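Work Package 3 committed the consortium to producing structural models of liganded targets before the mid-term review. Because experimental data for this complex are still outstanding, the team generated a predictive model from sequence and the ligand definition alone, so that downstream docking and mutagenesis planning could proceed in parallel. The input record is reproduced below exactly as it was submitted to the modelling pipeline, together with the SMILES string for zinc ion.
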Amino acid sequence: MAELDRQSIETALDERLGELRRTRAALRRESDGGLSGELSHLSNHPGDEGTETHERELEVTTELFLAEEERRIDEARQALAEGRYGRCVNCGTEIPPARLAAVPEAVRCLDCQRHFEGLHNQHHSVDSGI
Ligand SMILES: [Zn+2]
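The resulting structure, written out as tokens with the ligand in place, is given here.
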């Protein structure tokens, strides 16, 4: 296995985590104050209702995505601390350095990640009765 620069990976993960937390904090501030003041006057236009609902749904989706991303970065940092970083948590295969460079929080090889995401989707399908 190629020597990984642990320090720079840690820095990259920390930067991503910091960025993520700032985005989430900004998102929360926006949704808290979004309906007060001038914006509530604007939303009195009948035509704006649909847009507003859509924006709120988008916010929830973004929030979920960011929360998942934060969880993955935490997982990668833990793997790094325990010396497991760079290997797939599922099958133990070495994760290609190119993948780690592009996705520093990757803890699974591409195959296992696809499988993992597939399992998640299946759970959702079970919930909806399929
Ligand atoms: Zn794997």
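Reviewers should note the following from the model. The longest helix spans residues 48-81. These observations will guide the Year 2 experiments.
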